[in-house]
Amino acid sequence: MIVCAWIPRFELAVAAGGRAAMAGPLALAPQPGNAQVVGEVSGAAEADGVRPGMALGEALARCPRLALVAPDPQRVGDAWEAVLRSLEGVGAAVETEHAGVASFDGGTLLGLYAGSEQRMLGAVRGALEHPARLGVAPTRFCALAAARRARPRRAVTVTGGRAAARHFLRPEPVSLLRLRAGTRELVAPLERLGIRTLGRLAALERPALTDRFGAAGALAHRLACGEDDPPRPRRATERVSRSLELAESADGPALERALGALIDQLLAGAERRGRTLRTVVLSATLASGGTWRERVALREALADPERLRLALAPRLALLPAPAEQLRLEVERFGPAGGDQRTLLSEPIARRQARLREAVRQTRAAAGERAALRVVCVEPGSRVPERRAVLAPFQA
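RE: above sequence
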């Protein structure tokens, strides 16, 4: 039994400053540097024909009085983290792909509420400060579809197995696939092909969809047929963050120096307790309005400030505008710093093995001639081309 909690228009409500400000036609403006399509839309804008993912020009043509709200991923991330922690407070092991949708296995919670599904759903609804809609179904995707049919105080339950889930999903629109990261890009091409319901999608052959759309097509067909993977709960960890106000709207070297200061503050903080950093979130408040947010999963848990700067500094180039505030948050810690491998302390044999693996991956990505070494042949020759040659590198 999978339970899905769906909060409609969560990102728009946070960015607009609350649901009371969503009375008129509103839509999230396109992210700077991304495709010019609108994000979540208010009910008034939807009544005028504006849909999430619609091109900005078409949205303004359908609703000339449409007001665009600057995206605020930093505030959305903080607000959604608070919602997830509230759900975890009632015992739910939550999985989430994006803000506004959370799923968990409700069967593991029934024992905490005397086996009563209604008491369990009441506790979940009470933990959410936002008006949420709840759906209960055999799979995550079917539970999401059930939550979209639900009402604020009345959950929708789908009983049965795969056949019941497929029957329930049959009349649902394919736009529901936009709420899954792996199938988000398929909605527009499927609608252009005339496939507007999940029932029509399930009637197609899976090999044909895989041949046309790749792995995303196979996943979409699985979801439409009532198949899905079980929830993969996130690991609940403490959050540690540092922020720095910039005296002037900064970019370039000033931002890199500010990032270095934030890294030093995080590593020196008592909350770290000697642990390494595994996943961090880099965010900024933009001078032009709105915020920017980038999640960085490090390939190896780090506690070395220089290596952290090398890993995070290139992300500053993604900033769409000068920043007024820079913030660095630890989303997940690694093991203690004493367990961290360094190039100077690890044995020579292990270092050579890592070097061989790096050369192998480089050649696999860029070809056999991607890793070469310089061999001196005639150092005293007057012809520069004869002094040295390139040979394959052997770690």
